[in-house]
Amino acid sequence: MTKGKSAANSGVATERLLGKGLDVGTANLVAATQNPDGSITVKLERNAFLDVKGDVYSKAMLTKLKVPYVMRGESLIVLGEASFELANVFGRETRRPMKDGLIAPSDADALPMIRLIIDQLLGAPSQHGENCYFSVPAPSIDKDNNIIYHQGLFEGMLRSMGYTARAINEGHAVVFSELAESDFSGIGISFGGGMANICVCYKTIPALSFSISRGGDWIDRNVSDTLGIPRSRATHLKERGVDIANPQGREEEAITIFYRNLIQYVLMNIKNRFETTANMPQFHAAVPIVCSGGTAMAKNFIKVFQDECTRIKMPIPIESITLATEPLNSVAKGCLVAAALGDGA
Ligand SMILES: Nc1ncnc2c1ncn2[C@@H]1O[C@H](COP(=O)(O)OP(=O)(O)OP(=O)(O)O)[C@@H](O)[C@H]1O
Ligand SMILES: [Mg+2]
User: What are phi and psi of 172, to 5 degrees?
Assistant: First the structure.
């Protein structure tokens, strides 16, 4: 079932859509910009890079393969999707500037490389001080994640590019993008590469946000370890499209087992929070749940999510469980909607 609703597409407050939206993700960086005619342009780039020795042979090779690169000191740097393709051709692994939703603190190249990609995606502000709302993860329930440092780095980067930067919680952005017709009330979940972000929202106000440090990378790592195959092969098998309600063969079975476990873990934690957190909103009607993020793109993801939801007996009535219209873009679009509404995390 793919019944997601997009505020960005439905023209909600289009004339007030100012600024830009940026999804800072472990796997993908996504920028959403409003065009003068009110439509939205979304640009996506893989959050990865590869450094190649800066000799004449490598330069000639990259030029011949038509791979764009930038010079950095003695090295040639290939960014984004091109680095992923090049790495596959030469049997290397790309370098990833982020891990589990946050900037990798030990890699000195991480921030400058992300900045190069963000520069290409966002471009310059249309006027100095234009708003840019960017996504940040919610506090993790299972990992000590220092969001303050991560958030501060991106605020500083966007400010130096001429934007007025404001952080918004990733799950909150999903609600802004997908639940306009429910008055921005419901549960938004982003199943990403590094983590899952959950936000329970009541009329635009987040009542509860948390993250879990399990996502697509966690599935890949576990499939790779249990089957004894390289991680990149596990990613490839998964992204090729697995029907997680009807897996075929040993590899798909393994992927499905970890998918189910991830969904159960997320639902168990939502249930837990509803039962133990004080001051949760009193929803007067059944609550819609919308799932987004690349990990939710597996075939029959929503069906398995529904099965598990029934099994776990959620403490609140659920109105619907839907997949975002564009799972990879909904956080960036939600950041843009939040900028228009003038709301933030
Ligand atoms: N068709 C597909 N089927 C299953 N998984 C997919 C598919 N396409 C992409 N993915 C997975 O989606 C994940 C990336 O999703 P997304 O772009 O939403 O993450 P992110 O926002 O970069 O990460 P995070 O929010 O955790 O920081 C990766 O793990 C990738 O392997
Ligand atoms: Mg994400």
Answer: -65, -40
**From 2, 22, 24, 26, mutation site for ligand 1 pocket: most ligand atoms within 8 A of C-beta:** 26
Q: Which residue in the block uniquely carries the two structure tokens 């159960």?
A: 264
Helix (H) / strand (E) containing 134: strand 130-136
The pLDDT tens digits for 291-302 are: 999 999 999 999
Cα 37 to ligand 1 centre (Å) = 30
Domains of the chain (ranges, CATH numbers):
7-47+96-341 (3.30.420.40), 48-95 (no CATH)
- Spatial distance between the Cα atoms of 231 and 176, rounded to a whole number of angstroms: 34
pLDDT tens-digit readout, 298-326:
999 999 999 999 999 988 899 999 999 99
Give the distance from CA 96 to its chain's centroid.
15
Please, which pLDDT band fits residue 8 given cuts at 50, 70 and 90? very low
How far apart are the CA of 170 and the centre of ligand 1, in A? Answer: 14
Pocket of ligand 1 (CB under 6 A): 23, 25-28, 101, 170, 190, 192-195, 215-217, 235, 238-239, 241, 293-295, 297-298, 328
C-alpha to C-alpha distance for 13 and 40, rounded to whole angstroms: 13
User: Tokens for 216?
Assistant: 């697509």
Q: Which residues contact 316 (CB under 8 A, 6 or more apart)?
A: 274, 283, 286, 287
Dist CA 164 CA 185 (whole Å): 27
Model pLDDT, residue 84: 86
How many residues in the chain? Answer: 345
Q: Are 344 and 167 in contact (CB under 8 A)?
A: yes
Neighbours of ion ligand 2 (CB under 5 A): 25, 190, 192
Ligand nearest to the CA of 174: 2
Percent of the chain, pLDDT > 90?
A: 69
Taking a C-beta distance cutoff of 8 angstroms, is the pair 196, 274 a contact? Answer: no
**CA distances (Å), origin 237, targets 4, 102, 177, 226, 250:** 26, 25, 29, 14, 12
